[in-house]
Amino acid sequence: MLLSDLLAKLRMDAGDPDGKLFSDAECRRALARAVIRVNADLGTTYTGNETELTPDPSDEHLEVILVAAHAFLAGMRRGASVTTGVVFQSGDKRVDKSKTFDSWASLVDSLWEQYRQMVSAMTGEYLDDGILTPHGLNPLLYEIETKPRDE
């Protein structure tokens, strides 16, 4: 899939089709992080370069990648909004941007919950960011042998 098509879909989902809210670099970084996360959670092997994502994701996987990328974008904006939450007034005009951080934080939480539900539906596993689940561990089984005692 062409990266330009993927970026256009992400911008549409993020409500930024004109590219005024998020830069291309932010969108590319969010997509790269999303691909890494989806590969880990779904066991896929998607790779991206400057022009395309290979192999072409199925529609179901594409939606998961886009939701994760959107969550990463919202997280970037949440971090940037920490210092911009101001309230000021000039005469009868008042500007209140104190809730910006909370709005972005709420969106991030909502998107990650949607992501977890989508991945859980695909894998049958319950994903919880509060639970650390190591991958690649196998149980070690010991067999106890009993020897007859010499009497």
List keywords for this structure.
151 residues, mainly alpha, two-stranded antiparallel sheet, 4 helices, 50% helix, 8% strand, elongated
Strand neighbour order, sheet with most strands: 1-2
> Ranges with pLDDT <50 over ≥5 residues?
none
Distance between the termini: 75 Å
Q: In percent, how much strand structure appears in the residues?
A: 5-15%
The overall pLDDT, averaged over residues, is 83
Calculate Rg over CA atoms.
Answer: 23 Å
Query: Helix segment count?
Result: 4
Overall 3D form? elongated
Which range best describes the helical content: under 10%, 10-25%, 25-40%, 40-55%, 55-70% or over 70%? 40-55%
The tally of beta strands, per DSSP, is: 4
How would a crystallographer describe the biggest sheet?
2 strands, antiparallel
Secondary-structure-derived class? mainly alpha
